[in-house]
Design brief:
Layout: H1 19-59, E1 62-63, E2 65-68, E3 70-85, E4 90-92, E5 98-103, E6 110-111, E7 116-120, H2 123-159, H3 164-197, E8 199-201, E9 206-208, E10 218-219, E11 228-231, E12 236-243, H4 247-255, E13 261-265, E14 272-286, E15 291-298, E16 310-327, E17 332-334, E18 337-343, E19 349-353, E20 355-360, E21 363-368, E22 375-379, E23 390-391
Parallel strand pairs: 1-23
Antiparallel strand pairs: 2-22, 3-12, 3-16, 4-11, 5-7, 5-10, 6-9, 7-8, 9-11, 12-15, 13-14, 13-16, 14-15, 16-21, 17-18, 18-19, 20-21
Length: 404
């Protein structure tokens, strides 16, 4: 019996999925549908949340600080850096040479003109005076004798006893002695003057600075340092500068004869030190800085200004009458111009364009765009937009027992 031959007939893939492949495709399809549904749900929740957040943000009130626009007068000033200067400063020097034997002032003392400041040893000058007076007495006696001889010679010449030539010689002798007398008197006055100069007095009234020479030292008239420096402080000047573009405002008021007021403030412009008036205007512009120098005079009765002190000088050049005034902090600027946020009755804000007339310290004058009595925002501006709702600070409750 013959063995059967193996079946060698070829088989072909018809492309139809089998049972396992079909189940796999169904699983992937379900997963994809579920993921799409989850994504749609998440996007919907996110959109609702953002809309809810936007709505909450739109209704949240912004806390701000407000001020009321008022009507009144406002001064217009120019401010410049200035230096306090004394009207005249004097270095006290000796006018004679000698030893300093007395110092009659204290450092920083206020002195009046003519007060004794120091004294130089007067004995050498007293000796010089005595010598000059002795020479004067000697020549006076010689003059008296020569004058008497002249009268005798004149009588003898008239009698013909003496020749006239001898009388002429005697007259010349008298004139010579008379010239010597004038020189002697000048020497006496010079010695008296030197004796006076040994007492050094204050040439002006003012405050004495630090002592530059100690007691016992030799001082000379040629010494450059001197004994001390006196600077008057009542009254006193302040020299300050303003921009050259603003000088016409000052000149126009000066031509009208208006006495412009000047205030001296400290470095931080927080404390006013003194009030004075404009005294002089320089005749040229400093081309390196583009400024003009001005000088103001201050009575300085309380000695609040000190020589060489740096101050801020505020020159009042005009006064704006009957204008709307708001705090400077409320004024904002944009490429379109200046504006303020005004608070309406429904506690929302409105961006109001304004025209600024001038600024003085913490106040700004508004020419148009705002009325007196309107409320403007001064703090919290960075969070505002037109139409934003704001919350105003609540007034503090009155304390019991106060405000009655």
């Amino acid at each position: 019996m013959e063995a059967p031959f193996p079946d060698t007939t070829p088989t072909y893939d018809t492309g139809e999925p089998g049972p396992a492949s079909s189940n796999r495709w169904r699983l992937w399809l379900v997963v994809a549908v579920v993921m799409i549904l989850l994504a749609i749900i998440l996007m919907s929740c996110s959109a609702k949340g953002s809309k809810s957040g936007s709505a909450t943000g739109a209704t949240r009130a912004v806390p701000v600080v407000v001020a009321k626009a008022r009507k009144g007068d406002m001064a217009v000033s120019l401010t410049g850096l200035g230096t306090v200067t004394a009207l005249n400063t004097v270095t006290v020097r000796s006018r004679v040479d000698g030893q300093l034997v007395k110092v009659a002032f204290s450092e920083g003392q206020m002195v009046s003109q003519g007060d004794l400041l120091a004294e130089i040893d007067p004995r050498p000058f007293q000796v010089q005076l005595m010598q000059a007076e002795g020479q004067l007495a000697k020549d006076e006696a010689a003059f008296k004798n020569a004058s008497m001889d002249q009268e005798r010679f004149r009588s003898l010449v008239q009698q013909g006893i003496l020749p006239k030539q001898q009388l002429d010689a005697q007259i010349s002798t008298v004139n010579q002695v008379e010239g010597a007398l004038k020189s002697d008197r000048a020497q006496v006055e010079s010695a008296k003057l030197n004796l006076t100069f040994s007492r050094i007095t204050a040439p002006i009234s003012g405050r004495v600075g630090l002592r530059l020479v100690d007691l016992g030292n030799m001082v000379r008239a040629a010494d450059p340092t001197g004994l001390a420096v006196i600077a008057p402080i009542q009254p006193i000047n302040v020299v300050f500068t303003i921009p050259a573009d603003s000088i016409q405002k000052v000149m126009s008021q000066s031509r009208k004869g208006v006495h412009l007021s000047v205030e001296a403030w400290d470095r931080d412009l927080k404390n006013r030190l003194a009030t004075g008036s404009l005294a002089a205007i320089d005749n040229q512009v400093d081309t390196t800085t583009g400024t003009v120098r001005l000088k103001a005079l201050f009575a300085n009765a309380d000695a609040s200004l000190f020589p060489n002190q740096f101050v801020n000088a505020r020159l009042q050049v005009d006064t704006v009458r009957d204008t709307v005034i708001v705090p400077t902090a409320a004024v904002q600027r944009s490429p379109q111009g200046s504006f303020v946020y005004t608070v309406k009755g429904d506690s929302t804000v409105e961006m109001r364009p304004i025209e600024v007339q001038g600024t003085e310290g913490d106040d700004t004058a508004v020419k148009r765009g705002l009325e007196a009595g309107e409320m403007v925002v001064t703090d919290g501006l960075e969070k505002l937009r037109p139409g934003s709702k704001v919350s105003l600070p609540k007034p503090e409750s009155a304390t019991p027992g106060k405000g009655k």
